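Suppose a colleague, Dr. K., hands you the sequence of a protein chain of 125 amino acids and asks what its three-dimensional shape might be. Before reaching for any lab equipment, you can write down a predicted structure in token form. Begin with the sequence itself:
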Amino acid sequence: MRYMMIVKGDENLDRSGPPPQALMDAMDKLGKESIKSGKMISFGGLLRTSQGARLRLADGKLTVTDGPFTEAKEVIGGFSIMNLSSKEEAIEEARKFMELHRIHWPEWNGETEVRAMFEEGDGPA
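The predicted structure, expressed as tokens, is then:
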């Protein structure tokens, strides 16, 4: 089953500064190991919301709002899509990723949301 890991954190990185190089190196190593093992399908980091936009449909009206999204307390900073056997395995993979942050960037506050992805043949979600 495919799982998406959605990494969320504070849009204002001024509190904790940029990610340390040691964290980037550790994430690179973990990513390469996950790809080699066949678990990692795709991954990526996202730039700040100031370089994005939101499209909202409400009451039949579509609006576009350019970033930054000052009302957001947390924003998605990155993602990975992994092919894993169970929710428990997905949680363990997310735990490895979060442990890298705890070790190499203890000032950072955030979360990783683990979500099973809809597969062809699945019934209504």
